[in-house]
Design a protein that fits this description.
Length: 200
């Protein structure tokens, strides 16, 4: 099993990247939080999990050990595969997810990509004693109950803004309002920042 990769980032895509390790290019699937830390041409180190299936061998990578540990716990839950686990980690911070699990907040959990009611119940049952404690105000909020998780350029804009210190509930209304009018992430970011104003 490949425990980690350390090499140069050569390509960055929507949910994957290429890491050149001594002339060998590895395709690694990563959550949005890790994607935001990558820069083409710079060296990075990712903790990795190798998924072996009959038709493919897939690498999943994480910039933080905390995200890797949570990913491993998630894929141990029946009904949660690596792609679903990656989607959960892309939807918010590990602490926000832990808080939702500790609070048994089904409305929040079932809004996560690929998670239905039964899977949410299994996650709470199997993980609430394994994922560790979290402060009530710890981490960014996951998407609010009743609001679907942002997709496409909206998700990329959300990730960019949260990396700048904005809280998801603070920017989500502006993103949802401006996304239909925008074609690129850059255009959406400009519109959202304009809407938020410069008083922050």
């Amino acid at each position: 099993m490949i425990g980690y990769l350390k090499g140069i980032v050569t390509h960055i895509f929507k949910d994957t990247c290429f890491i050149d390790v001594h002339g060998v290019g590895y395709r690694v699937y990563v959550p949005m939080s890790t994607l935001d830390t990558l820069t083409i041409g710079r060296e990075t180190m990712l903790f990795t999990y190798m998924s072996v299936r009959e038709d493919a061998i897939v690498l999943y990578g994480f910039a933080a050990q905390d995200e890797y540990d949570l990913f491993i716990l998630l894929i141990g839950v029946n009904g949660v595969g690596p792609k679903v686990a990656l989607g959960i980690l892309s939807a918010g911070s590990p602490d926000a997810f832990r808080l939702a699990v500790h609070q048994k907040n089904m409305k929040v959990l079932t809004k996560l990509p690929g998670i239905g009611k039964k899977t949410a119940e299994r996650i709470v049952l199997e993980l609430q004693d394994k994922i560790g404690a979290v402060d009530d105000d710890g981490g960014e909020a996951l998407p609010a109950a009743g609001s679907p998780a942002p997709q496409g350029i909206a998700a990329e804009a959300m990730a960019a803004l949260t990396s700048l210190g904005y809280a998801p509930p603070e920017v989500l209304p502006a993103i949802e309002s401006k996304a239909p009018q925008c074609q690129t992430v850059e255009e959406l970011l400009k519109e959202v920042l304009r809407a938020l104003g410069s008083g922050r």
